[in-house]
Amino acid sequence: MQALGERYLRFQKALDGAPLPAALVDLAAFDRNLARLLAPVVAAGKTLRVASKSVRVPALLRRALAAKGARGVMTYCAKETLALAEDGFEDLLLAYPTVQRSDQEALVAASKRTTVSVVCDAVEQLEALSSVAGVAGVEGRVIAEVDLGFRPVGDTVHLGVRRSPLRTATDIAAFADRVARTPHLRFCGVMGYEAHIAGLGDSFAGKQIVSAARRALKVRAQREVERTRGEIATVLRARGHAIETYNGGGSGSVDWTSREPWLTEVTAGSGLLDSHLFDHYQDIRFEPAAYFALQVVRRPKAGMVTCLGGGFVASGQAGVDRLPIPALPEGCALLPLEGAGEVQTPVVLPAGVEVALGEPIFFRHAKAGELAEHFAEYHLIDGARVELAPTYRGRGWCFLG
Asked: Per the CB 3.0–4.6 Å rule, which of 2, 61, 91, 133 could disulfide with 184?
């Protein structure tokens, strides 16, 4: 019979007696991933902003922000921004716009505690923020977002996430002018997220042609992003707009993004925990740090076990890559016709490996932050020490349903 492996046995010991399912983070791996993200950012004289969406555990956010070169949090919801401000976090940048009055009131309340910047790309968002900021007697800090989607043949093909309608330096400059004319608001900078580069894997075993094509596409897309962000910096300064914050980045593009001279900061988050969608990058490697453990409850046949629970499917385009993967013991696999189910998940064991009923199988989620929506707490493993840390859900925070 094959050994279960050192990492499996270490995690099994750390969770001894804990009710399953349970989630854990290996802090040594987390710290190494943090150092990997910080290295190119600090070398370029920039700062790393931590994306809360990819973490959703206050203790881990604080751990990342305690490192030299890390500063500020990119939030994803107005009420989350207020919750973090009330929890003592500083320098918050909300990356997803809102016009809802209760959200604007939350942002204004947060701005009375710390520096809060709000990404906007439409006049309606400016008017909503201005109205509430005026009543509260505060100044709203506005970051304009540029859409960096790659369109090699016009609008016929769009690669990248659908975010801002502002696409060019002229668009951004006109929007900055509008912010300057809007009472109670101040233009503070620009954000541009190169999702089609940072989030596109380009190294797949047995798929050399696909991998090479993706790498070539990313190189071409990078040139377009660099050109657009450079033009924006030039035009804004020519119009007299100061750029306090120029934000870009993502875990999958941190090396390249850090080298852009006009950016002031780089955002990353998923690389800290290394969800399994990051397994397919040629030029950047992280170490798996976050897992969840399911109890083995059945043995339907030799070489196969069934776990209780596990259907934690990631958001995005539906596909097999959105399923969690059984990671420990190494060599386990899901059944293609069952996948990961809400109440049971069959797992094929590698030859010679046995896992007893009641013992765990350790899985990795496809997306780093979404795992926290399924657990009230994480087991933070630091050598032989285990600490329980509440997730957003464990704090009673439910921002997007």
From this structure: 133
Structural domains of the chain, ranges and CATH numbers in brackets? 6-21+289-394 (2.40.37.20), 27-274 (3.20.20.10)
Tokens of 20: 């399953």
3-state secondary structure of 109: helix
Element (H, E) at 290: strand 290-301
Q: Report the chain's mean pLDDT, rounded to a whole number.
A: 91
Half-sphere exposure at residue 348, Cβ-oriented, CA atoms within 13 angstroms: 10
* Four-CA torsion 205, 207, 209, 210, nearest 10 degrees: -100
Asked if 186 contacts 231 with a C-beta cutoff of 8 angstroms, the reply is: no
Q: Kindly state the tokens that stand for 194.
A: 């190169």
Residue (of 53, 40, 125) closest to 270 by Cα position: 53
pLDDT for residue 156 is more than 60: yes
DSSP string, 292-358: EEEEEEEEEETTEEEEE----PPSSS-SGGGS-EEEESTT-EE-TTT-S-SSEEEEEPPTT----TT
* E strands in 3-60: 22-26, 47-51
The 10 Å CB-count burial string (b at 16+, else e) for 370-395 is bbbebbebbbbbeeeebeebbbbbbe
Tell me whether the omega of the peptide bond preceding residue 288 falls within 30 degrees of 0, making it cis: no
- The predicted model scores a pTM of 0.93
Residue 41 has, within 13 A of its CA and on its CB side, a CA count of: 27
CA distance 371 to 313: 9
CA-CA distance, 142 to 166, in Å (whole number)?
14
| Per-residue pLDDT at 208 | 77
**Nearest-5° angle of CA 45, CA 46, CA 48?**
140
Percentage above 90 pLDDT, the chain: 75
Residue 162: CB atoms within 10 Å: 9
Lowest mean pLDDT segment, chosen from 47-51, 277-281, 337-341, 344-348 = 277-281
* Amino acid type, 203: S
Q: Which amino acid is at 29?
A: A
